[in-house]
Design brief:
Length: 436
């Protein structure tokens, strides 16, 4: 099939590259000429393991191209995906749909024949219906269908999630559109994922409900971690014990400094706004948002307490600032709260992150940067793990401690064992690891 992908952000670029790997003819479109120039040079504007190699392969095969010319891209396209951003509107919490509507109207104006406009952007309930209305009003002369196809890609594992999904959710309203979507995803049939066909509104709600539920699991185990610290229990044992229950599951039960990233913060906020407007408030999700924001601030205090109540004038080595490993994404990362709080209390913060420096230097003014953890920790009073990169898991703790002026190790991701850290000479502080 001929496919146009509008937007080359995280979702659009990964989806476009993967669809081309299915054998479809894909043209990715973006208004950002500099980004398209980079893509045409074979450079990926985001860090995602395996993406560059897959992109290179499909460009060489003639199945994948990049352009700023939307009209040329959608000409003859059987499916046009809209994968533009839906950021939170400043001060409101609502999703900003201006980019979605502008893209849909531009696509409708440019189409030369029947097609399916597929919304991959995360949008509140009712958005696909409104897009359908606007498209029909703009082009009453064309049969243009609208489908909802929310994404469920984890940054750092996006290609695996696209190629081997646990489900593909599609909101459609007619058999022809259903068949078109089945053709798009036909290569997945051999792998057997469930295709969930439902209404436009249900597909939209599935995306938000899934993210809100996962954010709730993270926040729940973080609060249990706090209780573990007070009672002498170990949150990792507790998480394993409850995670083995098939009704609960083990994923997203890892205590830490709070969730961040491109999805959970904005999607939980947008969902609560939808609930408020529908006079059906989501009290649990509202509380999750409040608790998560408070947790990030609390983690800064945890570091300060571990340092004897003050970090003024002390060098603090921060290991990892992206919101999770295997990505360069800094959006709503816990580090954006923790690091400024430490700097504000007089600390000299030195950061190391395998991929976070490009964005982090602008977002974390006042911090210095190092090439590796040992350089960051040289002369430091404390080392603080915020992001659980594999590069940090394999550190030589004795070497790390020997280069430091102090002995404090605050492990906000529980990547080290307490006994091993103590054997290396550290005064160790984890999350949810009480001591009887």
């Amino acid at each position: 099939m001929r496919v146009a992908m509008i937007g080359t952000g995280y979702v659009g670029l990964v989806s476009g590259v993967c669809f081309s790997d299915f054998g479809h003819d894909v043209v990715c479109v973006d208004l950002d000429a500099a980004k398209i120039a980079r893509l045409n040079r074979g450079e990926t504007p985001i860090y995602e393991p395996g993406l560059g190699a897959m992109m290179e392969k499909n460009v060489a095969a003639g199945r994948l191209s990049f352009t700023t010319d939307l009209a040329a891209a959608v000409k003859g396209a059987e499916a046009v995906f809209i994968a533009v951003g839906t950021p939170t509107r400043r001060g409101e919490g609502h999703a900003d749909l201006s980019y979605v509507f502008a893209a849909a109207e531009a696509v409708a104006a440019a189409l030369t024949g029947p097609s399916v406009i597929v919304l991959k952007s995360t949008v509140p309930v009712g958005t696909n219906r409104e897009v359908k209305r606007r498209v029909a009003a703009a082009r009453p002369d064309l049969a243009i269908a609208v489908a909802s196809n929310p994404e469920f890609l984890r940054e750092g594992a996006a290609i695996e999630d696209f190629m081997r999904p646990d489900r593909v959710v599609v909101g459609v309203e007619d058999d022809a559109t259903r068949k078109a979507m089945k053709r798009l995803y036909r290569p997945l049939n051999l792998r057997g994922p469930s295709m969930v066909f439902t209404s436009l509104e249900s597909a939209e709600m599935i995306k938000y409900a899934a993210n809100a539920f996962l954010a709730t699991k993270i926040t729940f185990i973080n609060e249990i971690a706090d209780l573990c610290e007070k009672t002498g229990a170990d949150v990792q044992s507790v998480a394993r014990g409850i995670g083995l229950d098939g009704r609960i599951g083990s994923k997203f039960l890892h205590a830490g400094p709070g969730y961040g990233g491109s999805c959970f913060p904005k999607d939980t906020l947008a969902l609560t706004r939808t609930g408020q407007e529908a006079n059906s408030p989501l009290r649990i999700v509202e509380t999750v948002i409040e608790v998560n924001e408070a947790r990030k601030r609390k983690m800064a205090e945890k570091v300060i307490d571990a340092c004897g109540g003050s970090v003024a004038g002390k060098r603090i080595a921060v290991l990892g600032v992206t919101f999770k490993p295997d990505t360069d994404d800094m959006r709503d990362a816990p580090s954006l709260t923790i690091v400024p709080a430490l700097i504000g209390r007089g600390a000299k913060v030195v950061i190391v992150d395998p991929e976070g420096r490009r964005e982090g230097e602008a977002l974390l003014p006042g911090a210095d940067w190092a090439e590796d953890a040992y350089e960051a920790a040289a002369g430091a009073a404390a080392a603080v793990v915020i992001t659980e990169w594999n590069a940090f898991r394999g550190l030589d703790l004795e070497r790390l401690r020997e280069g430091m002026a102090g002995d404090v190790l605050v492990d906000l991701r529980n990547i080290f064992r307490r006994d091993e850290a103590q054997a290396a000479g550290f005064a160790y502080t984890g999350v949810g690891r009480g001591s009887v």
